[in-house]
Structure prediction request, 425 residues.
Amino acid sequence: MGIWQKEITKLLLLLLATAIFGAVTGVFLPILLLLMLGIIVRQIIQITQFEKWISTGGRGKYPKATGIWEEIYYHIYRIKKNEKRRKKKLGKMIDQFRQSTEALPDAAIVLGIDDEIDWANKAARDVFGLQQSDKGQRIPNLIRFPEFISYLKSGDYKESVILPSPVDNRITLEVRIIPYGAGLRLLLAQDVTQLKKMERMRKDFVANVSHELRTPLTVLKGYLETLQDLDDENSPLLTNSFQQMLGQTERMQHLVDDLLLLARLETQQKKTKCVNVPELLSQICKEGDTLENASRRIELTLETAVHIRGEEQELRSAFTNLLSNALKYSPENSLVKVRWYQDNVSIILAIEDQGEGITKVEMPRITERFYRIETKRLKKVNGTGLGLAIVKHVLMRHDAHLNITSELGKGSCFSCRFPICRICM
Ligand code: ADP
Prediction:
């Protein structure tokens, strides 16, 4: 029998007993009232007892009760016991998570909505010099590097940012922010000192080797040119050999020059001034026209006269590379359109050719160093595979982007998009 049925049966039996007693004694109503009063008083006592127990958080064993009240106490007691067990389990899990994140070699900081530190592991305390008491402090007040502050404010966390450690500037950190949940962010910092050191060594090595190769190559080319002049052309084998050697020496010279330029782009400080791009483009297009023996192929359209802040030599080599590619990789009498124009957000240099185009598979790879498309026709075109890598680097140093669109058999368009804030006239 259920608890409710028991309670009701008890009440009915009491009522029956009262009715019989009332019938025998003839005072039914007062006895009934007395019974009701007794029931109400009992309930009030139970409620008071319950309120007292629950107001202390329902701690300890519940008070003695009978009937439905015992059942209520028992249910609440059971819920609380389960909750306690779950809490314990969760606490254990959190402890394990804390211990594992504490042991992580990478720094991890949980940031709140207002950039305040919610939690930081040991590595974060070590590399950023944080104290336990810094919890709740805003992180821009503790890590004050301008690059970090603008990265934090930008809200664009696709890329990471490289910073020296505030406690030891010999340590280089790669900092990345990962947003999660509602407005929360996880800041991760990795020690990349060794990696950066190796990268610097690689750059220095390439720059030094390229530099050292320059002089012997110039000497070699000089002798080859003299020998070619002395050649009486009686031996076609010798003439052909000189030509081949000179061709290969020139190829190596281009390679060394491109490698040196890339090394300079990677290491040199940026120096900017106001560059007259329309004039620069006119010069480059004129040089492009004279390079080609065929009739004029370049059509230059200057839709805007704006100048931009930048490094003239770097821009010259990027634009020359793009134009020479457009000429190299398109048929002899086709047109190459060069356009300097502006839209709401950018100033754009677009170089469009009517060449063979680039497949979707090759597209993401052509800006990689030494990557060249190996089709039968393109194989014959001279190049180092470094031209577009140089373009990408130059544009990166000018906060610009390279957009490439291409249609097989119809042609390609390479656009350099400079942000409007670069305009200086
Ligand atoms: P390269 O010295 O070989 O020209 P780049 O880095 O300038 O080196 O270009 C990489 C590759 O991208 C080239 O080998 C070529 O296959 C392809 N490419 C570059 N520009 C064009 C273009 N305008 N049309 C078609 N293919 C191109």
The pocket of adenosine-5'-diphosphate is lined by residues 321, 325-326, 329, 353, 355-356, 358, 366, 371-373, 378, 383-389, 412 (CB under 6 Å). The two ends are 93 Å apart (CA to CA). The chain is about 50% helix and 15% strand. The chain has four domains: 3-97, 104-191, 197-267, 273-424.
